[in-house]
Structure to design on (543 residues):
């Protein structure tokens, strides 16, 4: 039996699609915490059973409720969406059962109840294949790794589960939504990133304008954040900065040193704009254009502005 | 206030090369350093001590060199151990060391920058049965309670818990200090306890590790219109 849980439904659906693909004969159950209304969606996306728990999404409650379900049903595998909440609750549950946990998995395989996973290690430059010593085998799955699939006529069972968690040890006093420019670069779906090809700080506007028309986040290389300090540290992409996994990464005036490339390994599509045809970034991108960023980027922004 | 800080010494990732034949990482001769966010955790502990008094004990996974660096930054005492294990093993080992100690607060980096597993902090709190506040970018301690501002995907959360508490911190919380020469020399007088832990139980086994083959298209476009076309179709 395989259990899935995510506080983010999209990632839960991605995991369900992947499990259906690799282990279709297994019984697949989704744990859904929150308000009623999306149980059927989970069935449509691949769950055989939904354990619905009416509860707020508080890490302490999630840990207790999932543990109760593990005690009752003894699943071989528990797959959790790799959100910040997911990455807190997965190791906590694993510690309770004295078992291993692999976070931010980029691929999975299941054979005879054995889960094998792949994840990036050593700052994103190497890929490790790992297996579990004991069960339950617990892993969190990185967002946007798999395509969700829905089938409206799929049938499944919805079970209302009354969980009796302990009183949470942490009180949430206040929640403040982030402004769009505060969203962490690790979570951004489009990133427009700039490097040493930019001549002065004032020219950042060229970059932020493009990011704005694309509704993307602004990233940068080491020199811009750490040496010149033209952008705060949270924009720094790379081995010592932040590892990112956007659908689209546009590297502007970034030469493409190993450390930077290590931070963008998980990007779906990488585009490079650089005036040096020998820049290593051209060997690490999907699409590249050779030329002066001061000519290319403003024109590009205008073309895109007209089309969106 | 009695504060325990857990730090991990990691390989300087910039120096790791790959073996051309096996594609495996080569770590021989690579220097080691304290993982970035762990330094933020230590810095925060030192600031809390400066404000509230007390003691900072640092638990170091690594060599004595890392312990000396932490002491030079201002920790009062170091316990150092070197062992090959995973997150389960580390958390269980740390829990065993910390259990008999008197502590109000445990600080950890939210993740180590080599593994980015985000596991040891939450696991350790679970093992000790104390509250955990993850991803903190600001903390304040007052009369036996702690208030932290946590950074999540699309929001910040202000949370409160009663001590003892474990907090994992991110990079935004502070700028770690660089010890002066005088502090480095002064640190040599501070106490370092070396532990040789027995082999710990692990939960995950690495079957294989190798460099990632970049499979990118490497298509050079001739003009901006084509570039715009690609961007619009990919977004």
């Amino acid at each position: 039996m395989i259990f899935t849980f995510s506080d983010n439904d999209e990632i839960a659906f991605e995991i369900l699609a992947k499990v259906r693909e690799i282990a279709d004969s297994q019984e697949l159950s989704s744990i859904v915490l929150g308000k009623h209304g999306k149980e059927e969606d989970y069935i449509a996306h691949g769950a055989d059973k939904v354990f619905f728990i009416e509860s707020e999404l508080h890490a302490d409650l999630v840990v207790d409720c999932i543990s109760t379900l593990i005690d009752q049903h003894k699943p071989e595998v528990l797959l959790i969406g790799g959100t910040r909440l997911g990455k807190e609750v997965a190791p906590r549950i694993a510690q309770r059962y004295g078992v291993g946990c692999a976070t931010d998995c980029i691929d999975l395989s299941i054979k005879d109840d054995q889960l094998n996973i792949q994840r990036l290690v050593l700052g994103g430059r190497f890929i490790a294949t790992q297996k579990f010593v004991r069960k339950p085998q617990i892993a969190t799955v990185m967002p946007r790794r798999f395509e969700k699939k829905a089938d409206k006529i799929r049938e499944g069972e919805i079970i209302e589960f009354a969980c009796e968690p302990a009183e949470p040890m942490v009180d949430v006093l206040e929640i403040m939504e982030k402004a769009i420019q505060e969203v962490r670069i690790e979570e951004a779906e489009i990133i427009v990133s700039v490097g040493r090809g930019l001549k002065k700080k004032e020219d950042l506007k060229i970059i932020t304008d493009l990011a704005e028309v694309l509704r993307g986040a602004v990233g940068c290389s080491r020199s811009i954040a750490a040496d010149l300090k033209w952008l705060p540290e949270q924009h720094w992409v790379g081995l010592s900065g932040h590892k990112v996994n956007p659908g689209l990464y546009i590297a502007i005036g970034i030469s493409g040193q190993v450390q930077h490339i290590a931070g963008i390994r998980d990007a779906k599509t990488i585009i490079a704009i650089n005036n040096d045809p020998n820049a290593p970034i051209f060997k690490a991108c999907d699409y590249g254009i050779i030329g002066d960023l001061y000519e290319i980027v403003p024109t590009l922004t205008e073309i895109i502005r007209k089309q969106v | 206030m009695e504060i325990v800080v857990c730090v991990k010494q990691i390989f300087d990732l910039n120096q790791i090369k790959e073996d051309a034949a096996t594609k495996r990482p080569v770590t021989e001769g690579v220097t080691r350093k304290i993982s970035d966010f762990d330094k933020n955790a230590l810095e925060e502990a030192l600031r809390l001590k400066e404000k509230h008094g007390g003691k900072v004990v640092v638990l170091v996974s690594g060599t004595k060199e890392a312990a000396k660096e932490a002491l030079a930054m201002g920790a009062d005492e170091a316990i150092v151990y070197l062992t090959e294990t995973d997150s389960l093993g580390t958390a269980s080992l740390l829990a065993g060391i910390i259990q008999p100690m008197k502590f109000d607060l445990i600080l950890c980096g939210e993740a180590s920058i080599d593994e980015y597993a985000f596991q040891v902090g939450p696991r350790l709190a679970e093992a000790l049965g104390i509250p955990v506040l993850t991803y903190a970018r600001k903390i304040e301690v007052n009369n036996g309670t702690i208030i932290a501002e946590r950074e999540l995907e699309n929001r910040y959360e202000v949370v409160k818990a009663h001590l003892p508490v474990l907090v994992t911190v991110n990079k935004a919380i502070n700028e770690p200090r660089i010890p002066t020469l005088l502090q480095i020399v002064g640190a040599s007088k501070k106490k370092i306890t070396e532990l040789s832990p027995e082999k710990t139980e692990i939960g995950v086994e690495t079957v294989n590790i190798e460099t990632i083959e970049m499979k990118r298209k490497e298509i050079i476009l001739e003009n901006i219109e084509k570039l715009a076309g690609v961007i619009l179709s990919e977004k």
